[in-house]
Every structure is written in C-alpha cells, then in structure tokens.
Design brief:
six-stranded parallel beta sheet; DNA-binding; Rossmann fold; homodimer; alpha/beta; Peripla_BP_I (chains A, B); elongated; 12 strands; about 45% helix; four-stranded parallel beta sheet; 434 Repressor (Amino-terminal Domain); transcription (chains A, B)
Chain lengths: ~350, ~350
DNA sequence: ACGATGTATGTAAAGGTTTACATAAGGCTT
DNA sequence: AAGCCTTATGTAAACCTTTACATACATCGT
C-alpha cells in the first residue's frame, strides 16, 4: 500500500496485466480503452495508490501544470483575495500555482523567466501593469499570459479587471448627488492605465454635470498613503480648496484622511472622501471609507479561467474582461458643509 | 539566440565541443572540470541562452526545487507578509514556492499530497497547527516540513514562530501595570497550541501578580471576529464583568471592540482591550489596537531557511525557533475607569 | 623506466511518461 | 467467405538530465 517508493505506471500495468501504454490511455483518454480494461486499470491504481509523476509527464509533454503568478508585492492587501480566486480555479483544473514578486525590480522579474525556459510553468498571471522582464526578452516568445487589474503595456495580453472608468464615475456621481461641486481628484497618473481610466471617469462625471474641469484640484500621486497625505498639504497651500476628495485608490484616501485629520478636520462633516478598491482596511478606518469594490475573488477566478482557455485553445477569446465595480457606501461622504462650500 | 525551441544541454555540448556530461559537470560541479573547458562551456551557454530544464533535472534527481506552502486560508491577513519572507529566502537559494489552501477541509489538504508523490515539491511549509492530510497517510513518509506560527500536532515537525507564552505575558503585564485586576481572557482553546500557550502566559502573569484565577471571565473562542463579539454578549449575561479584555488574537479583539461599541461603551475609557498578532488592520481600527507583534517577514525567512537546511542535511538542527514577540502600544489600553473597577 | 595514483573527460543507462506506429482481432459489407 | 474497416492493445522511441563506470592521459615515487 504505502511502500517506500511511489508506484509507477509500470507497477499499475503489471497488476492490471496490461501494457503501460494502456494504463496511460486509461487515465488520459478513457474513451479509447475498453470498459473491462479500464476497470482493471482503475483497480490497480487504487491498489497501488498510483499518481502520475508530474515531472515525467511535463518533461514528455513539454509543458507543466503550473501557473506562475507575479505581483510587484505579495504583501499588498489587494493581492491575497485575488489569490484565492486564482488558486481555486487553477486547482479545479489540475493546475498548481507558483508565486513570485518583483518589488518593481526589473532584474528580479527577469529571474522568473527561467520558469518558462525550463518548462516549469505553462502560463503567467501578471499583477503589474508592465511586463516585468527586460525589453530584449519582451520580444522573445512569451508564455500565455493574462493581466489582472490593469491592462499590460505593450500588451497583446488580455486582462481581467473592473471597469475603472465606470467605477470612478459611480464615485463622482455620488459626490455630485450629495451636492459637491468642487471635487478634487487625488492620484492622477499617466503611468498606470487603471489610474488614467479612473481619471477619465472623474472627467466624464464632472462634464455630465456641467462642471468645468479645474486642474488646480487635480493632483498627481502614486497611490501610496504618503501621496495622499502630501496632496492634502499641497492643496492647503493653494488658493482653492475642494469640498470632497475623490481618490484614485483606498491607500491614497487613507492618506488624505490622515492629512485632514492632522489638521483637525472631521470627515465627513468638513470634507467628503472616496476611495477605490475596497481594501480590507477600508471598513476599519474611521470613518469607514466609502469606496468602489473590486470583486477580487471573482477577478482571480476569471483571470485564471481565461488563462486556462488560452492554454488549450491558443487564441484568447476576449482581450479584456471587465467586471462591474460596485459602489460601497460607508461613512466618509456627506453633503458639503456650509462653511466650506462657501470658499 | 532566441530560437523557437529552447536550447538543450546537447546544443551547448556541440558548440563547446565537449560531451553533455562535461556540460552538466561544468554547471553543477565546476571544480571537477578544467578551467579551459569550463570557459568554453560558459561561452556556449551564453551563446545559446541555455537554462537547464528543471523538469528533466527533477525527474532524474527525484526531487524538485519547489516548496509547497499550505495555509488554511490564503486570504488571511497574517499570511501575505509571511509569504514575502518565505519567497525571498527560497528564491535566494534557487527554490520556487507553490501555494495551496485547505479551507480547513481535510479532503482538500489530501489533494496537495500529490505534489509530493510526483516529486513536484521537495518540502512543505505548514501554516496550520494540524497536518492537513488524512490520518492513514499521516503515518506515510512525509516530506521535510516546517510549521509556521504554531507547533504541528503529532509533529516531529519543527516550527518557527513567536514565543506565545512570553507574548501573552507582555500583554497581561501591561494591563496589570495599568492597574487592571479583573482581566478577561477571550479565545481560550485547547485545539490550537498557540492559543493554549497564550493562555499559559495569561495564567502566569496573573499568578505572578497574586491574582487568583477566575474562570468566569475566561471564555472560549475560535479566533474569529464573531467569537469576540459573542464572548462580550456572554459576559454581559454573567454577574462578573472585567475591566480589561485580553484577546487571543487581533480578530477576536476586533470582535470584542465591536461588541462593546454596540453597547455604547468607549474604549479605552470604559474597557481596555489587547490583541495578538498585529494584523495590518490593527493600526486602522479605532481606537488603534494595542497588541503583540509577530515579526512576520522574519518568521517566514527563518522557516524557509530551516526547511532548506532540512532538505540538505536531512536532520533538523532545531525543533523550535521562537522569535521575540514585541508589545506594540497603541490606544486601546488605559487605567480602569472608576465606575467599572467598582463592580 | 615502470607501476601507481590522480585528474579530466566520455559513454551509456536510468528516471517515468506519452504517443506514433505496428499489430491483432472482431464485425461488417458484398 | 474474403476483404476491409474499426477498435483495442502493445512496442519502442523520445523528452532532457545526472552520474556510475570506463577510458585516457599526465604525474609522481621509486
């Protein structure tokens, strides 16, 4: 039963009194084998506890059953929930998942290429908006890949995410509905497509409400807590103050709230704030943050499903799968206060 | 350079004008090969862009360069930071990491065993206090394994974590120093060794302060937010109320704070609360939670280092590596209020 | 100068699969 | 009943390494 060395296909063949080819076929192309023999083989498998050696199989097939997942930072709160979606879907199809993180270091990204050269991984899930490999290799034969959250620059790589423009639009529409007219946009960036799109949603919302754009209250930022805090400082040094802060993501929103809090303001009484992502912390900070939810587990599942499809079909069916972002209303938004709206 | 099919050891051998055996030796046992030939081989490798096929290598060697990391829940906030420690250390030694999550489902844990049968993984990092495999297989030859956070039941498996008893002691000592005498312990459990040890620290602290144990304010719990909230409800139905809640982990503490908040109490004015773990949320909830920090990245690094050692030496050098838990003081603890200390 | 020792390389087997091709047997058509 | 097609199985090569063993040559001690 549980011998010292794992059973091989030959052990199964001997017990089932067939050839190893038949065993292989009974496992992977059951319809090609007679019922009676299939039965014998299955029994022999049960007796020996045989599992096919994935190494030998991958070697022979020239492809493995592993998917590499590369993120800039595994510690990112957005990461883990995606992972469960990815893992569930992968395992359901007999795939395992391998993880790597680049820390935005191109050299480091390059190291992960070896997983493909050596057939250790069959496909790639990318969390970053850029290819983590150097430029020369970029032109080389890339593994089947799918992006998550953001389209991948220079792509040709399909991606699964949320409709960023629509999500941003929901946030700005909420603020408008509350009566805000001076709405800052914090975290503008042309280097991240997702952020660019959120900005587009913001612009569109303002436009639809007939509010002329005011670039004085549109501030750049890289999506960190610090960038949010910094933006608040900058804004207070200018002549125009908004009544609401629409932030490109939750981290930025947290930074804004910290900055505002440090100046003694109350949210949402004095200022309204919205985020984007719905990170796990969003519900715990005070006040709880009104934000746009990324359906993370679903995104992970879809991304993996798309990749697996790519692996079997070769051609991607879709180049972009956009899930619907939901507005989650908590407590960081209210109508503009009289005082501040006067400014 | 970047041909359609990746270079094999034979390509390298042909170009370097040596045999494939020499190429293999030049790579893996450089000292066994003459300087001149080593040079030729290295050049040939550079020309072809050869990387050794990990599948073939693993097949031949009977072991892979992958480490399987199994956690009950990948979404767990404690998980991700550990992962970066694990991954960094693994990659530095040429290992990759594979992840799986069991969702506390034994059947599911069992599925991961196949990674070892088929030599897809060389070692195992376990996040759960129990072996995720069924009992019969438990006796079977297990892969080299290391536990994280908690000792593994029925183990013989070394583990890396924090000194739970000492950490708990620090928490209870802080509460005692603030003047608390009626300190509840929330989340007692005999099924999780880490929790049992935290309880021991609590007992020891009380004992050292000359306070007789009061089991009426020691409540069971499974470490979830809900269990914390539930404990509060139970406590209010009894005749004895504590002035402080020492919780077995941060989730429980959050639950307690929610429960107390729902009843209109203010923390830390009316009650003090401590947690354990220092999850990412702990700093964002209000009031920010005083808790015991797990040095997660360091734990991950150590655990992987220990496992790799195990893989090469065969024998574990240590059966238990305990890192020092630090008290991180935030804002959920103060002296007991006059009102409540009277009770 | 000869055998012994050591060093550098090559030859070939083994690791466990999958699958193209060959073979055998049974059923069908005429 | 002969030939043909289909279905079920077997044989053997290939995937790419690593390494035990064999070989060739140089060096050393006597």
């Amino acid at each position: 039963m549980s011998n010292s060395t794992p059973a091989t296909i030959e052990d199964v063949a001997r017990i089932a009194e067939v050839s190893i080819a038949t065993v292989s076929r009974a496992i992977h192309m059951p319809e090609k084998v007679a019922n009676s023999t299939r039965l014998k083989v299955n029994q022999a498998i049960a007796i020996t506890g045989y599992t096919t050696n994935a190494m030998a199989r991958s070697l022979r097939l020239g492809r493995s059953n592993m998917i590499l997942v590369v993120a800039p930072d595994i510690g990112d709160p957005n990461f883990s929930n995606i992972l469960v979606g990815l893992e569930n879907e992968a395992r359901a199809h007999g795939y395992g998942i391998l993880i790597g993180h680049t820390q935005n270091d191109a050299q480091r990204g390059l190291e992960y290429l070896k997983f493909f050269n050596s057939n250790q991984a069959a496909g790639l899930i990318l969390f970053t908006g850029i290819l983590p490999f150097g430029h020369q290799t970029m032109t080389a034969r890339l593994p089947p890949s799918v992006g998550v959250f953001e389209p991948v620059f220079n792509g040709g790589i399909p991606y699964v995410g949320v409709d960023d423009t629509e999500g941003a639009r929901k946030a700005v529409d909420l603020l408008l509905a509350e009566g805000h007219r001076k709405i800052a946009f914090i975290g503008d960036s042309r280097t991240r497509l997702a952020y660019t799109r959120r900005r587009m949603g913001y612009d569109a919302g303002l436009d639809a409400a007939g509010i002329p754009p005011d670039t004085r209250i549109v501030l750049e930022g890289d999506g960190t807590i610090e960038s949010g805090r910094h933006a608040v400082e900058q804004l207070f040094m200018r002549d125009t103050l908004p009544t609401a802060f629409m932030c490109v993501n939750d981290q930025t929103a947290i930074g804004v709230m910290v900055g505002l809090g440090a100046r003694g303001y109350d949210i949402p009484r004095d200022f309204s704030v919205t985020g984007f992502d719905d990170v796990p912390q969003a519900v715990f900070i005070s006040p709880p943050l009104t934000t746009i939810r990324q359906p993370r587990t679903a995104i992970g599942k879809q991304a993996m499903a798309l990749l697996l499809e790519l692996l079997s079909d070769g051609r991607p069916t879709e180049t972009e799968i956009l899930l619907r972002p939901d507005l989650v209303v908590r407590n960081s938004v209210s109508a503009p206060s009289r005082n501040w709206s006067k400014r």
